[in-house]
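W.,

You were right to be curious about this one. When I first looked at the sequence I had no strong expectations either way, so I just let the prediction run and decided to look at it fresh. Below is the sequence, 356 residues in total, followed by the output.
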Amino acid sequence: MTRTIRKSVGIIGLGIIGRRIADHLRHQGLSVFVWNRTPRPVPNFVGSPAELAQTCNYLQIFVSDDDALMRMIQTISMSLTPRHIVIAHPTVSPDTMREAAALVERRGARLVEAPFTGSKLGAEKGQLVYYVSGDEAAVNEVRPLLQASSKAIVDIGAIGDASIIKIATNMVTAASVQGAAEAMAIVHYSGIPLEKFADALKQNSSNSGTLDLKVPRIISADFEPHFSVKHMLKDMQIANRMGRHFDLDLTVAGATRDRLLDEARQGRGDDDYSSIARRFLPFVQTPEMAEPEPAPPEEQPVAEERPKPADLETPRQTEPEPEETTTPPETPSNGDSEPEEAKRGFFSRLLRRTDY
């Protein structure tokens, strides 16, 4: 028989953030039950989201996008009762969040909207910042749960409003990294070490916590995901749709979306979104992308040795066939072995691009 444990917390989604939130809640002494699409060998892993809803009063949902949120709400809806509060954490369009809240409320339950900022490091340290919207009593009831993994909770307003704020702040975050990547290209091609740029930026009023984290990682080509390309791309697509709704020309958000889309098309959707710097700094490559070292020249036969007739045949040298790629013509391929003059010409053309 399914257990019903009052004041227990259910975590749906054990990705980069969800599993760390579960750890923080356990450290607070709470009963934590979890479910993930791919089973994990973790304590209190249950068989389905519906079982989680039957077990827990509070359900924190960590999924990736609008469709995933709506599927999960529909999955658990028949198990919801007036004792439940659903805490929806994904960054989605405000209309999707309102639709999710309406489904929850039809069952007599309540939904608190709580997207967050801080990504992987913030989750590890319990220093996320939550933007929350919803019924005031429901928000106050779940506040201790959010405090277990946060340094601040910002009350926003009605359902949907927190999603708008999160999208707006991500527009600034993504654009700042895009701008830094372009600035670093100017510095690099001017022959100045990028470390000089990083030092100067630290003393500049335009610096931020984001750039403190991302600029050194770009220089060292460290694109381990803290906030992935695919997730930031999704947020910039939402931003641009909202811009069209208000008849706004979001030039910067559009350009950032396009760069993220380029990365996703190159198969790097799971990399950190700062990998958009590859567009402007082609030398920024992970080891597996680096050009192979040229093979050493073949040894010439020693003069005094008379080679056998069969050895007189010189193998015909052939150029390696270029690798197939789906890269659009204007996007540089990272595995070419062009002559140095051609590379310099390519970089010059890259700096003259005006498609922004």
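Here's what jumped out at me. Residues 1-6, 286-297, 299-356 have pLDDT under 50 and may be disordered. And, maybe more interesting for your project: The radius of gyration is 26 Å.

Coffee later to discuss?

I.
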